[in-house]
Design a protein that fits this description.
By secondary structure, this protein is mostly helical. The protein has 21 helices and two strands. The protein has one domain. The protein has a two-stranded antiparallel ribbon with strand order 1-2. β1 and β2 form a beta hairpin.
Length: about 475
């Protein structure tokens, strides 16, 4: 097989699977069930996951005239994104209503969005970065408004689209300024020419504009305002995907921009990352304390976790990259898991959206209640869970890089976060009030697909908390490949 094609094999597989889903959907009678299309999408994602691992057998390098790259760094994020997409598809298979509209388009959009996310992690040409970002974004904009029969669904899609378009505009203006200053849009060439650019102000301004676009994608403060409304309005299986996979791709891009493209500007971007990390942790946690809606609380929690992850960027060299990469994997596992539980409890239509609705969950469903508590303590950062080592490595990298106060602020914010996480856990553990009618699950039956998703997320979260060495070594290998 052509080596260039091997370097984009996961993206090709995802696109082919998406097209196949659409063709099968169009060929089926209108009254036919569309659920098997989800299995086609899941199978395509598994093939893409296997093809990502297969890329480790080829020598690291670029393809298509230096537009995309294959390395342990790109493979790590390809595997992570494909894993997230697979679990999100499994959740959707058992929770999307049988009579929901346009299921074929739903599964195809997930696959097309995943192809853009994978391409974004391997792009070393800024124009390809922009194209990959748009492929991912357009798919997620539509998915955010999938529940178009409700008022909140279209509202979420419109807000996400409008604000996302502005953020993408900032990124594109930054790319244009970099081209004007260096005469190229190839990341490795920019890294060599940026220091000797005649108009250094253009390079600095370009970096600032690009950071605005990337910080929006990871929902870091102060570019976070879209997050609560989108999380609340989108279906929970979509939020499981939106809160993890696009962020993983955006963080991969951020690592590439800061550590690979413009490392000489560290003295400029480091204080900015410091401030954004503090703002994200503090604003996210304080706002989450006031929320009564579970999905809005988890939205502000995701803003805070973006801050925890940015703390790792203050680490020196490979240690900071490895810590950020590991944290991305740990956060993805526990966040997809908790949204799987929320989906099963609240249902596709969010019939039980409030924290109070989870009262007595441990008694009504010991399995779901136990899983909810498990993922919450992982988000807090209790030992023997992935959340603990994620924060440990992130804060350790910051201390190693000299950002001791930033690590202290992160620890204090973790203490604040435990208040709203444990509030939900204690609510789930409370006995139902005597004589009070217990809320009924909107989706009481747990199918084989969602069981597989829960097993995968629980197993990964425990693995990262008990024996994190293999993933940490993979993260360190990825970090060395980026430098």
């Amino acid at each position: 097989m052509n080596t260039d094609l091997l370097r984009i094999l996961p993206e090709v597989v995802l696109v082919v699977a998406g097209v196949l889903v659409m063709l099968i959907d169009a060929a089926l009678p209108a009254a036919a069930r569309r659920r098997p299309l989800g299995w086609v999408a899941a199978l395509g994602t598994m093939v893409a996951l296997w093809s990502s691992i297969l890329q480790l057998r080829i020598e690291p390098g670029t393809a298509f005239f230096g537009a995309v790259e294959t390395s342990p760094f790109t493979v790590f994020f390809h595997v992570l994104i494909c894993g997230i997409v697979l679990v999100a598809l499994l959740i959707a298979l058992d929770t999307l209503p049988r009579d929901s509209h346009h299921q074929g388009e739903f599964y195809a959009l997930v696959l097309f969005g995943a192809s853009g996310m994978c391409l974004l992690t391997g792009a070393v040409e800024l124009l390809v970065v922009f194209i990959a970002l748009e492929i991912s974004s357009i798919s997620t904009y539509i998915l955010a408004g999938y529940r178009k029969e409700t008022g909140k669904g279209p509202e979420a899609a419109i807000k996400y689209f409008l604000l996302g378009s502005f953020a993408t505009g900032f990124l594109l203006y930054g790319i244009a300024l970099l081209f004007g200053a260096t005469g190229t849009t190839q990341i490795y060439e920019i890294a060599h020419r940026a220091a000797t650019a005649q108009n250094h102000t253009f390079v600095v301004l370009a970096l600032m504009l690009m950071l605005v676009g990337i910080f929006f994608k990871v929902s870091a403060a102060p570019f976070h305002v879209w997050t609560p409304d989108v999380y609340e309005g989108a279906p929970s299986p979509v939020v499981a995907l939106l809160s993890t996979a696009p962020k993983a791709a955006a963080f991969a891009l951020l690592l590439r921009v800061l550590y690979e493209m413009l490392p000489d500007l560290r003295s400029l971007w480091m204080p900015l990352v410091w401030v954004v990390a503090v703002a994200s942790m503090t604003i996210g946690n304080l706002a989450a304390l006031r929320q009564q809606n579970v999905k809005r609380m988890l939205a502000y929690s995701s803003i805070a976790h973006a801050g925890y992850l940015l703390v790792a960027f203050t680490g020196l060299g490979a240690s900071g990259i490895a810590a950020a990469t590991f944290y991305t994997a740990a956060y993805a596992a526990m966040n997809v898991g908790i949204f799987a539980v929320v989906t099963l409890v609240s249902g596709y239509d969010d019939q039980l959206p409030l924290i109070a609705d989870f009262r007595g969950l441990l008694y009504r469903s010991p399995l779901l209640g136990s899983l909810l508590v498990f993922f919450l303590i992982s988000l807090v950062g209790i030992p023997f869970t992935g959340g603990f080592f994620g924060k440990f490595y992130s804060f350790s990298a910051a201390v190693g890089g000299g950002a001791v106060w930033l690590a202290i602020i992160g620890l204090l914010n973790s203490g604040v976060a435990s208040a709203y996480y444990l509030r939900l856990a204690f609510t789930a553990a409370q006995k139902p009030e005597d004589g009070a009618a217990a809320p009924r699950f909107a989706a009481p039956q747990i199918g084989a697909a969602v069981i597989a998703a829960l097993l995968f997320t629980v197993g990964t979260t425990l693995w990262l908390g008990i024996a994190p060495e293999p993933i940490l070594r993979a993260a360190e290998t990825a970090a060395r490949a980026l430098q």
